[in-house]
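Regression check, G3I case 354:
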Amino acid sequence: MNRRALLTSLALAPVIGGCRRMAVAGTPPPDLPPLRTITPGAFGTCVQVANLSDPAWLDLARTHVSQLTPEWEMKMEYILADGLGRPRLDRADRIAAFAHDNGMALHGHTLIWYAQGQEAFAGLDNAAFDRAFDGYIATVAGRYRGKVRSWDVVNEPILDDGSGLRDCHWSRRYGQDGYILRAFEKARIADPDAVLFLNEYNLEGIPAKGNQFLRLVERLLRAGCPLQGLGTQSHLWIDIPDGQIAAFIHELSQFGLPIHVSELDVSLRTGDRPDLRGQQERLVRQTARVTELAEAYSGLPPAQQFAFTTWGLRDTDSWFRRDDKDDGKDRPLPFDAFGQPNPMARALAAAFRA
Ligand code: G3I
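Current build output:
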């Protein structure tokens, strides 16, 4: 069967199979093996505490998932919500305990991010800022030492257009490379065993951003930064030109470091203009992008296949389904609202089993 025919069959299978079967909890369809058993490295997904009381989510996660990334409750927005002096670690603790009790690895996300921490760090003089920055990493990374496999030490340092690095409260104190170097050095001290990642999005879809990321990695490694893993979030869009995703993964692999596809989802929404293509046609494009990414990841040397993580399991778990643009029809994730495989799940299985 040629590639186009395969992709079309993957996208149309659910329709040909008739209306969606109601989920029978915990029983993967016979044509879909548990993804954790066929994904090189680990198959991950994001999690929030609310998922842990959802029996359908628990069944799906226990069937398919071998690694978890806290979606938001291990970030400053939750931990520092009551201020620097009163870190809230209860929910990250619950997630860490669930991962341990269920034999799943835990990927810490994220210590230092331009998007968070402004309020808690506002008004501090330099000495207090340094104590707070270093202390936060020591407290959080130290607490989960032995519980996390890895950390996104720094998240999203690069400008959306790839023209340079973001200015933020961290860079204004330590410089654009400086805050990243400091964060990794403090994380290394706090947890000498965790694999330390730099994590970024749109690297496959915006070549200038991908190139800026590669240049940053080169600079950090040359400066002796204990950078040990590279996270490409892969929030893909269906119209990324053929071959562009695979080309970037190949470039990313040049450093010989473990690669984490860290937040895969592929929305069927294509910006603000009306998309005249039907959902099935857009699903074919989505399936092509996912197949290209999964095949590129599968082609990496085993030592560089860290994990392949989707940013949610069911379409209804997706952040895309929580924003005001949601029309209730987006299918960005491997499974539908009932836990049944979308074309994405079948594309992943086909690529990983190939
Ligand atoms: O669950 C609470 C709810 O009880 C409360 O009423 C409501 C209003 O305060 O907040 C809800 O929590 C929200 C949470 O998502 C769950 O929906 C948080 O406010 C909101 O900030 C949080 O957003 C997360 C966002 O990162 C910011 O942390 C998204 O879930 C999460 O998907 C998104 O993930 C990011 C990655 O970390 C980095 N890469 C991009 C990715 C998508 O933006």
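Comparison notes: The chain has one domain: 3-18+25-353. Residues 12-25 have pLDDT under 50 and may be disordered. No diff flagged against the previous build.
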